[in-house]
Amino acid sequence: MKKMLTERELEVAIYVAQGLTDAEISRKIYVSPRRISTIINHIKEKWYINSRVELGILVYHYGFIEAPLFSNKESNLFERVAQ
Length: 83
Hints:
Residues 1-63 form the HTH luxR-type domain. It holds the Pfam family GerE. It comes from Bacillus cereus. Keywords: Transcription, Transcription regulation. This is LuxR family transcriptional regulator. This protein has 83 residues and is mainly α. It has a single domain, classed as Arc Repressor Mutant, subunit A (Orthogonal Bundle). The protein has 5 helices and no strands. The protein has helices at residues 7-17, 22-29, 33-47, 52-61, 72-82. The longest helix has 15 residues, at 33-47. The two termini are 12 Å apart.
């Protein structure tokens, strides 16, 4: 079962799903890139995932971002992976 994210974790997760780097995210929310890395690691632990790609897939799958970042073919593949 996936654990709930804090508001800050969700904000960072959405930025990761949009393809931003730690440095880019840190400039947007005014914290250090190291802190962003720590937040991402907490998210990965809570959701039992290993990569930013998996994080992006789940953010899309759970509806935290509205527009798909992938083509229809890729979207169908990622939907199956996220289940």
